[in-house]
């Protein structure tokens, strides 16, 4: 990785600032955590730091409070949940900077969770004064929040200028290890599966991955922009007309590597359980809502041969059965392949869960936006800012 790891730091007796990702989904006016997955994902780094003699200042954002205090986006429930998981006390600070925080700073073996960083507009503005205040809370810095590594904020970039050493946490290292493994000199054949709603969201990813992989399979609504660009009918399917030229150019330059669906599950309306049929050519009054069985076979065959698989985005409207079949079938194919597989994006992750194959995937990324930027070949500011090894 070329950057310091938490394992390179001398933590004994030090106060360590860990930028974690506790941006958890909340219900009941911010009282109840509906998934503690992100909190659990930070535990290995927290336990490592405690075992090596550090006192911990943990910091995160939660939601979009837009620079104002909003009790519904307080990190208090996260302190309580983390304390239950670790079976040790986790103190909760009333703010993230200022005298109320400095009065509570942890001794070795203790944990203090700061209040939501984004209650201060200076966090997202990457304000130097605020960055300096955050840095004054610690001796050393670790970033374990891969999900925000694509943002240059005070807690992910700014404060690093004011600390002697900044290292990657264990989760951050794992993310970077797998994403690098599949994009830098991957075992071949290497394939990518890209789906989801919009070509525009993933154009940079397509342009970067097409140079890396041996096959790129496209599904989801994205496919219809490519199909239309070839002059074929797409009926009422979702399409981005302003991306037709780009799609045409990509097919011209890389048509030998790109696979498009050869059949489609179509319906007259986008509704759960809508009457549907499988077609090769989409009728004018129908819309494509999933890849068809021949496409599942075609893509599964490529997946079975692959040694490296990158997957982002569903193959159809998978949240509305029966239009989830293509996505679930590919999840099973990826799991059965035995290849190194890296999956990003919340929808693909849900599909993997509902196919019951989570344990057969090498790595499911915790950061949707950050993993897409990485796959697009963009340097993540939160990684670039860490201290070189
Ligand atoms: P994204 O956030 O770009 O990964 O897109 C995910 C969304 O794409 C999901 O909500 C899917 O329902 C949607 N999607 C996938 N395939 C289609 C399709 N054929 N028509 C409309 N929406 C789709």
What's a concise summary of this model?
The protein is of the alpha/beta class and 389 residues long. The chain is built from 14 helices and 17 strands. The N and C termini lie close together (9 Å).
Description:
The structure is a single chain. The protein is an alpha/beta fold and 389 residues long. The chain has helices at residues 37-51, 76-86, 99-102, 121-124, 128-135, 170-183, 199-209, 222-229, 244-254, 293-305, 325-337, 346-354, 368-375, 381-384; strands at 15-19, 26-27, 32-33, 55-59, 91-92, 111-113, 140-143, 166-168, 190-194, 215-218, 258-259, 264-267, 276-279, 287-291, 308-312, 340-344, 363-364. The chain folds into 2 domains: 6-173, Rossmann fold, CATH 3.40.50.1260; 186-375, Phosphoglycerate kinase, N-terminal domain (Rossmann fold), CATH 3.40.50. Strands 5-6-4-1-7-8 form a 6-stranded parallel β-sheet. Helix 11 packs across helix 12. The longest helix is centred in the N-terminal third of the chain and has 15 residues, at 37-51. The chain starts with 14 loop residues before the first strand and ends in a 5-residue tail after the last helix. The site of adenosine monophosphate has 16 residues, from strand 14.
